Amino acid sequence: MKFFLVLIVLWLFVRYVLPLVLRFAVKHLLKKQAQKFGQHYGANPFANPSQTSARPSHTPTGEVQVEYVPPRAKPPRPREFNGGEYVDFEEVK
């Protein structure tokens, strides 16, 4: 009887208490890592985007401002084919 009581208590703990504890621990760990990321790279992914604008936008409504245009890569030039040696194929039986 004592064995079944312990088994039920363990099952209830694993079923109801452990998920709450794990959820809290993971949430705390993620916030801590996000703060480290923010200190290192200067951004906080959990911050409200309206509060973290780096600079005010000076573009009128409806216009797009592009700050960086990557350089265009030149398409690779195909190599000139100087021809090759023709080999006559004969089927050997």
From TrEMBL:
Classification of source organism: Bacteria, Pseudomonadati, Bacteroidota, Cytophagia, Cytophagales
Compositional bias of kind Polar residues: 47-62
InterPro entries linked: DUF4834
Matching Pfam families: DUF4834
Region Disordered, residue ranges: 44-84
Protein name (database record): DUF4834 family protein
